Amino acid sequence: MVKYEFYSDDYQGGAIAEENWPTYEARAAAQLARYKRIYTVTVPEDSTDAENMAVCAMAEALQSFDLIANGEGGAVQSASIGSVSTSYGSSGSNAVDITPKGQARELYRIACLYLDIYRGVS
């Protein structure tokens, strides 16, 4: 379990509020545990906090997926300054793929930034 203090101090994250951290941390940790069951996952020699860093990065991605799915995140499609108005959307070539397959691909990519993940025996 990665503590919020690690997320905010060591990872230097700020996208996830402390009250939402347990939910996203648990989902990210469960995904990493799944990777460990089906792949060979090793920590690079020079990184003692690699697993925690991966969980933090994956947690932020999970929150982003949720925000986009709820219409609260993604690329800004329009903005107004007078009486402050923004709208988010995901149309066009910059759209984030929030399909289950797209999310799985992105979470795997993020985990690989911090951990060595092999699809076979190393």
Describe this structure in words.
With 122 residues, the chain is α+β, with helices and mostly antiparallel strands. It contains 4 helices and 4 strands. It has helices at 4-10, 21-38, 50-69, 100-114; strands at 40-42, 75-80, 85-89, 116-118. Strands 1-4 form a two-stranded antiparallel ribbon. A two-stranded antiparallel ribbon has the order 2-3. α2 crosses α3 and α3 runs antiparallel to α4. The protein is globular and about 60 Å long. The two termini are 26 Å apart.
Chart the SSEs and their pairings.
Elements: H1 4-10, H2 21-38, E1 40-42, H3 50-69, E2 75-80, E3 85-89, H4 100-114, E4 116-118
Antiparallel strand pairs: 1-4, 2-3
Helix pairs in contact: 2-3, 3-4
The count of β-strands is 4
Net shape: globular
Largest sheet: 2 strands, antiparallel
Mean pLDDT: 87
Q: Which regions are unreliable across 5 or more consecutive residues at pLDDT < 50?
A: none
Helix/strand structural class: alpha+beta
Q: What pattern of helices and strands is seen along the backbone?
A: HHEHEEHE
Report how far the terminal alpha carbons are from each other. Answer: 26 Å
Estimate the helix proportion, in percent.
Answer: 40-55%
Quickly count the helices.
4
Q: DSSP strand (E) fraction?
A: 5-15%
**Strands side by side in the biggest sheet:** 1-4
Rg computed from alpha carbons, rounded to a whole number of angstroms: 16 Å
